[in-house]
Amino acid sequence: MKNLIERVSSEATATEADVVSLLECGGADVKALYEAADCVRHDTMGDEIFLRGIIEFSNHCRKSCDYCGIRGPNRTVTRYRMTPEEIVETACQAKQLGNTTVVLQSGEDPWFTAERMCGIIRAIRQQAGVAITLSIGERPLGELVQFKEAGCDRYLLRFETSDRDLFGRIHPDDDFDERIQCLHDLRRAGIQVGSGFMIGLPGGDTGTIARDILFATRLELDMIGCGPYLSHPETPLSARPLLEDREIYFKTMAVLRLLNPRAHIPATTAFDALFEGGRDLVLTRGANVFMPNVTPRKFRALYQLYPNKPCVDEDSGQCSACVVGRVARLGRTIGKGPGHSRRGPEKNSSQ
Ligand code: SAH
Ligand code: SF4
Q: Exposed/middle/buried for 337, CB within 10 Å: 0-12, 13-18, 19+?
């Protein structure tokens, strides 16, 4: 196993069988895998942790993804929508709290037309001067081009699972090929692309996770965002137990780092919902990005994609004080620049 870890670390390639072996490793090998991922992260991305403040600006959603707590048909959710002015003001606060990027995330909310989104992007650019990531679901190429022109730098859109049958079963409104096409369209529009998957979706096994890891790697992503699937009681997928091997969530992140040395990899919030100090652990096992929640406190509890979401009773000031402490305890530093893609031009040649 030590040889396999060394080979995958130095070559950054692996077969499906290799990845399954890494995901199934036990005992001292688990520690060796985490150390290898931390070492690759250190060598390629350095010790900076980039802060991307996330603004959950609307929980309206026209879609019905089977796993998601804010899916349109969930009548138990009180819906909210921040005004464009509130969003811009929140972005300015996020900048003051040390975030060099804001991530604007929402359900698929048609109220936020391309025109409205572009107005918000331009205002944030002028008033806050931070990099902007959108995470608002699938949009047509024409709109992506407009977002880019307005000043959008990056976009997060997970493929959720690389198993197209499973994708079809849990996405009543979506088509797998269209989701992947949207990722290619983002690149054509000149936007840095982030994608990823949920770890441990019902209907998958270790082989599925291995294929998801390899699929994400083949996409040559600028950012890879993955987190544990957490079952939400008000969804059709609710009755799913957690994966038995709790380490597999972290092993997945470590293997992603070995195979994608230069990708930005966030320690996603869902890790904190599942493990005490989960995000800190991921930051020592391959991740280099942290996404503090900067959503105004009054909306936080209403944006529950999954239960047990951390930080719902805190305000942005508390969250940023907490992140400063977390970064210092890890012996790392807070990223100074915008933290743009580290992939070389040759990797983004399809742009
Ligand atoms: N509507 C946008 C952005 C919000 S959802 C979109 O769908 O892209 C952001 C991510 O939350 C999704 O991509 C999904 O991977 C994750 N998510 C939703 N429900 C979840 C659950 N029950 N457990 C873990 N992650 C979940
Ligand atoms: Fe809506 Fe995104 Fe949730 Fe799907 S995952 S229901 S698109 S918020």
A: exposed
For residue range 304-343, what is the model confidence (pLDDT) as tens digits? 999 989 889 888 888 888 999 999 999 999 999 899 998 8
How does DSSP assign 14-72, residue by residue?
--HHHHHHHHH--THHHHHHHHHHHHHHHHHH-SEEEEEEEEEEE---S---TT-TT-T
For 339, counting Cβ atoms within 10 Å of its Cβ (0-12 exposed, 13-18 middle, 19+ buried), the class is buried
- Do residues 331 and 210 lie in contact, with contact meaning Cβ atoms separated by under 8 Å? no
Structural domains in the chain, CATH included, are 37-331 (3.20.20.70)
Distance of alpha carbon 8 from alpha carbon 97, whole angstroms: 38
Please answer whether residues 97 and 316 qualify as being in contact, where contact means their C-beta atoms are separated by less than 8 angstroms: yes
Q: Which two tokens stand for residue 68?
A: 């998601």
Residue 225 contacts residue 261 (beta carbons within 8 Å):
no
Q: How many CB atoms lie within 10 A of CB 127?
A: 13
Structure tokens, 230: 């957490």
Neighbouring-strand partners of residue 247: none
| Pair of tokens at residue 125 | 């650019």
Per-residue pLDDT reduced to its tens digit, 131-190: 999 999 999 999 999 999 999 999 999 999 999 999 999 999 999 999 999 999 999 999
| Ligand 1 probe mutation, 68, 105, 224, most atoms within 8 A of CB | 68
Tell me how far CA of residue 137 lies from CA of 70, 159, 264, in angstroms: 13, 11, 20
Q: Is 68 in the pocket of ligand 2 (CB under 6 A)?
A: yes
**Pair type for strands 266-267 and 223-224:** unpaired
Proximal ligand: closest to the CA of 72: 2
